[in-house]
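Problem 12. The chain below contains 263 residues. Write out its predicted structure in token notation.
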Amino acid sequence: MSKLPFWKRSPQPIEPLELGFEGSLKSLGADFLKSHPFQHALTKGEERERTVANFFTERLPKRYSVVRGQVVDVRENWSPQLDAMIFDSSRNFPIVSGSNMLLPAEALLVAIEVKTTLTRGEVQSAYIAANKLKSLRPFGREVAYERKGGEDPEDDRSRYFYALFAYTSDLSEQNWSAQEHGRLKQVSTEEKLPVESIDRVYVAGRGLIMPSQSRALPEADGIALMNFYMHIYNFLERENARRPLVPYIDYAGRMAAGWQDLS
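Solution.
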């Protein structure tokens, strides 16, 4: 985390970082094209999910793992299937490991859903999924939707950062961000869910949207992608520092059943 106050930081990223994300944007586009030959829709989708997961795995500190699967809390409330789940694997471990992993609710920090084309139907399903995820009870408490400035000593609830990554959108490129933001607000209203249930929406080649703040950053040679990454990285560092370890003993129950008296 930066020790410099906001006003002392350079208005622009350093050139190597800027060029790095410009290259990453081009690589994402190339990997998207590589997945086209697959005929099976599920295989094609998994390849595109893996591309996004690899993007974060390669750039995040090694303590963070990026996996796919589900989340469960101690009352056995379940999340939907999630394309990319980020957690600190140096502090916590999955309940079930494999190609799909099951995380305890207290371990999950960030969830990213990957869409080939962002449509109204995909936005609707994302809001429903985000709401289901944020209805879990890590540490036995409801989650916080937003925490201004990232810190509030009086609020010890956990937060989940839920983001949408799409390779393209079915909306026209002209005035895309305003159209997409309007669709987000309309769908969230229809579903009677907070618009901030989805924390960020990034569409490759189009830009980044912050629904709760009604702000958008058009893509310009990887700048929006860099912001998308940095928002997630900063959230991980703040939220992870606030969280206690997962109380695995709570998931194990009383551990009293099945014991035999040998006296």
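Discussion. Residues 113 and 164 are 5 Å apart (CA to CA). Students who got a different answer should revisit the alignment rule from Section 12.3.
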